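Repro:
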Amino acid sequence: MILLDYRDKRPIYEQMVEKLEHLIISGGLEPLTRMPSVRSLAMELSVNPNTVQRAYAQLEQDGYLYTVSGRGTFVTSEGDWRESRRGRIFQEWEELTVKAKAAGLTRESLEGRLRQIYGGEEGND
């Protein structure tokens, strides 16, 4: 399912989150697919079950997974995780805007900096 790089400086659960998120976004894990149990995935990857639980919890918080008590953990529908991701991005943007205004930056200076960073391309995601 996923390969972990034990030489990577990032925690194992972060690698798991990244790889599972990629599988979900790319369609490798289809919506409503039942995820392996925490214990079975931990055994498969030779990691502590708490590591898998932490990754699953993060993915659930990010809107990619949901848990049904007594049934297991499942991939959410595409619309659900896309909407959740949009909400997080919007919330982060709002927080950054508040911090920028508090630092005395104007809308024009922010827009100018974004144009510098993204090369003036508008409408691209």
